[in-house]
Specification:
This protein has one helix at residues 339-346, and strands at residues 4-6, 10-12, 33-35, 57-59, 81-83, 105-107, 129-131, 153-155, 177-179, 201-203, 225-227, 249-251, 273-275, 297-299, 321-323. The chain has 348 residues and is an all-beta fold. The chain starts with a strand and ends with a helix.
Length: 348
């Protein structure tokens, strides 16, 4: 097999590999990177990295792996990044990372995982990025991130999760992005974000949520973006954003909302984008945007609105885009007139 070792530190090959010799790296103690992605590998020898103590990065993504040996990384204490995405893995050994205390990036998305061992990350205190999207996970162990205080980003999109443990992020104070789109969640624990003060973005779209706890974001003062679209929400708590002064994007479209609390955005002065289209709203509170001077875009199309308050936009000088079509307006909108002109006609 032809191989390329650059500076005795990086391994690559141009061959279309289907298998790897167990002794391939037996005499490369200085090896730091292994790139074996985009081949046709179906398995990896258990002792492949037995003599690579300096190994930092391993790329095994885009192969046909169905399993990973539990002792594969026993002698790689410097491992930082592992890419196993786009394979056919159905399970992960619980002790796979028992000797990788420097591990910071783990990509496992696009596999066939149905579960994750509770202690998988028990010895990875430097872990920052975990991508588990597009698997078949039905649950997540409550203590999965109990020993990952540096965790920054978790992606669990496109799985089959029906619930999330309340203490899942109890020890992740640095978490700033969470993606849970396209699951089967029917509820979210009230204290899920009680210990995530750095949280910036939360994606909960395309689930089956019927309600949101009022204090869910009580301890997330840095929250910028929230995506709750494409759920089954019938109401929104009035104080949901009471402690999110940095909030700039809110997607609530494609739910079953019949009303919006008047003070919902009372403490969101940085709000820029609001999507509430495709609900069942029959009215909009006049003071809804009284404290949102940075508002740029508002989508209210596809609701049951017959009118809107004349002063709804009195304090939104930055507003550029307003979508109001597909509502049963008492006064029809002329496509050639401005919102201000239409409002005047409505209230003559």
């Amino acid at each position: 097999m032809d191989k390329v070792i650059l500076d005795q530190r990086t391994f690559q090959t141009d061959n279309q590999l289907t298998s790897i010799s167990e002794n391939l790296f037996a005499n490369t103690p200085q090896l730091m990177e292994v790139h074996l992605d985009n081949y046709q590998l179906t398995s990896i020898p258990e002792n492949l990295f037995a003599n690579t103590p300096q190994l930092i990065e391993v790329r095994l993504n885009h192969n046909q792996l169905t399993s990973i040996p539990e002792n594969l990384f026993t002698n790689t204490p410097q491992l930082h990044k592992l890419y196993l995405n786009h394979n056919q893995l159905t399970s992960i050994p619980e002790n796979l990372f028992a000797n990788t205390p420097q591990l910071s990036v783990v990509y496992l998305f696009y596999n066939q995982l149905t579960s994750i061992p509770e202690n998988l990350f028990a010895n990875t205190p430097q872990l920052k990025y975990v991508h588990l999207d597009n698997n078949q996970l039905t649950s997540i162990p409550e203590n999965l991130f109990a020993n990952t205080p540096q965790l920054i980003e978790v992606r669990l999109n496109h799985n089959q999760l029906t619930s999330i443990p309340e203490n899942l992020f109890a020890n992740t104070p640095q978490l700033d992005k969470l993606y849970l789109n396209h699951n089967q969640l029917t509820s979210v624990p009230e204290n899920l974000f009680a210990n995530t003060p750095q949280l910036i973005e939360v994606c909960l779209s395309y689930n089956q949520l019927t309600n949101i706890p009022e204090t869910l974001f009580a301890n997330t003062p840095q929250l910028h973006k929230l995506y709750l679209n494409d759920n089954q929400l019938t109401s929104i708590p009035e104080n949901l954003f009471a402690n999110t002064p940095q909030l700039s994007v809110v997607y609530l479209n494609y739910n079953q909302l019949t009303s919006i609390p008047e003070n919902l955005f009372a403490n969101t002065p940085q709000l820029k984008y609001v999507h509430i289209n495709d609900n069942q709203l029959t009215s909009i509170p006049e003071n809804l945007f009284a404290n949102t001077p940075q508002l740029i875009e508002l989508r209210l199309n596809h609701n049951q609105l017959t009118s809107i308050p004349e002063n709804l936009f009195a304090n939104t000088p930055q507003l550029i885009y307003v979508y109001l079509d597909k509502n049963p307006w008492e006064v029809e909108i002329d496509p050639d007139e401005s919102i201000q002109e239409w409002l005047k006609r409505m209230y003559i």
